[in-house]
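Example record

The entry below shows one chain as it appears in the dataset: sequence first, then structure tokens.
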Amino acid sequence: MEISINTKNILTKIKIHPSTYLFFLLAILTGNFMSLFLCSILLLGHECGHFLTAYFLKWETTNITFYPFGGVAKFQNDINTPLKEEILVLGMGPVAQMILYFFLKAFPFSNLHLSLLTTIHYNILCFNLLPLYPLDGGRILQCLSCYFFPYKKSFQIIYSLSAFFLLFFLFLFFQTNYLNFLLFFLFLSLKLYQEKKKIHYYIERFFLERYLKNYSFKRSKVIKKEEDFMRDCKHLIKVGNHYLKEKDYLKEKYESEI
């Protein structure tokens, strides 16, 4: 099988936030250029891992935007995308970062710069893999929970776990007075709050996609209410003494709202 890569198409989707240029200028003036440069290179590899995997899976890729200390790869994939595909896209970010790290280690860095590269790499990797939504670790854990729990329940699980880790960051700040822990707590609390406000949108879109499109799921399950709908699974809904196919149930649901 031949895989063609439209490099020009990919490059047009890469964006650099204006603040990044300002941070690089400040880094040069303050003598911290190498730290920011290595951080940016590793984050570039990380986000490209997400982006290129989604591209090969033929997801609708919107863009990838780089900020001074992070990046965001945006896609327009269905919520009902196969779980294994989403886990692969999420997991390839850390994997690509690891590959890039070992590649960079082959360059003739000084011991100081090699130590700096290693510290930055593992800080980014460990932080990003925390089971805290919306970090990669939290998203992967939510996808894994969707194999065993209803879609709506998976949000409740990951939000509760995320809240626990956020409180842990706050506890570490009070114990150490290390400002980064407070910044992590504030930033991730804001992101979690923003995501929680979207939960009704996600769930409604989840049902609407299933109503409008045809998906082929290998698993099947008998349920009694729509809160029990699962990803990667087709359903029979028990209503009283009879059963409704998923499409018929959703047809009744949406036609009754018109």
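Notes for this example: Residues 1-8 have pLDDT under 50 and may be disordered. The first helix runs from residue 7 to 11.
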